[in-house]
């Protein structure tokens, strides 16, 4: 598996062409993309999309962009982001996107490593009903990137002023509007594509970087394309003309997964804004009805928020939502609690005679830009489980000493034992440094018991259900709890809180603490209280009693305390590893990838006083 073997050696393809000209051959005047914000809608036909990519690619070519160059977007989730990506990849350049809510330090942690020559940014963005300036952040970013030859500003908010002359930049950088940029291209240049080997890179994504500088993970054209089409068509039952919406930013791998829906002939829906605007918890259900969305993807956290708020779309007032267009709901980012499965089927799945939705809890990651655990339209759904392994993915559970325990039902480490096309083609930079990063990330923990060759260690803690073939996600490996030698995942505790304490506890962080002077690990549970509820010793005792009853005495948190905030990544995932290190006495410099990193000081103070 390392070095990655070459699939389809000798072939050539264009990633962008496969996205723009799917085999289903949609009508040129049918809708390819619907872009929505909290207050606006835009529809783009296939013909319009191809023409806009043609014009953008011509301008990129006129600005000297060539195969292997990097193009970055510091962008919101809108049509122009997709167009810039497709134009860049049509020429053989690499695309890397970072959302505008990302801080300057975190942006530079990423883009400095890949040295983009073109940088696209927005003149402003909207979120939660407000316009947010981008000028100062964009200026700081471009001033620290001497590789950037051209900074191009999209007029994302029409008429909003963006003072180009005051942008701080290097002498070799030109700053211009998107209109000016396009005017430099050859208006007669046809839409054409660079045909390149399957392993030619198209995307650069990044590891979470919660405890260090994010690692740039590079994905190739063929692996990304064939994996996404397999998942969309076979595992998710997405058909030509279906409307696919995943709530995501351009940073998250799910944006790339969403955009690939075009290759299956689907209409994709882009959304930029808060999922709770303009109609609070009803915002997304109403959008689903309005746009007749068939496949809705989101985070497990979002669905649990609806559950905790007792959101009942069909009974809501003054506006209700039938959700009759829905075929599927996809959930990822963290394990989906069994109680949330029940909530979705009771309140979000339309009643008979509608056949009901397929609730697909999925898992994979930036590392593979796709899924290890996937949905399946012809298998039953079991609460708390991911339905099955992805087709062609040799996924198993290994014990800590490298024994295959998949069929035992015991919890273990998620591994993949056979090469697969969507493995990263490299880590940036090319050469020994990137190779060392790649190897150390996945291939230094387990070996194949038969061959002795290194196999993929994903860093997730899971167990397989021998009777259903389903997968229980138990959390990240670095968040595995191990009191008295019993290993279990934090999600088991979170599920208990969501099922039994959803009114009192808004969120929680469950981690293990083992300081140098400790002989055993102690389970610590931090709880953020819901509005109107107070933390008390009595509540802590109730939580301990329910955990003991529902799980076991060894699962019971020894320490339960209130916290003001739960640290999360920019993608909304809980930062268990960093807090575990903090309260265990390991001094780390936390990356800017922690979206609310200021709250970590509270945990440092807690560690000093407890």
UniProtKB/TrEMBL annotation:
GO terms classed as biological process: lipid metabolic process
Stretches assigned to the AMP-binding enzyme C-terminal domain: 497-573
Top-level taxonomic group: Eukaryota
Keyword Ligase: yes
Domain AMP-dependent synthetase/ligase: 27-345
InterPro entries, sorted: Acac_CoA_synth, AMP-bd_C, AMP-bd_C_sf, AMP-binding_CS, AMP-dep_synth/lig_dom, ANL_N_sf
Keywords annotated in UniProt: ATP-binding, Ligase, Nucleotide-binding
A GO molecular-function descriptor: ATP binding
Family statement drawn from the similarity comment of this UniProt entry: Belongs to the ATP-dependent AMP-binding enzyme family.
Name under which the protein is recorded: Acetoacetate-CoA ligase
Organism of origin: Exophiala dermatitidis
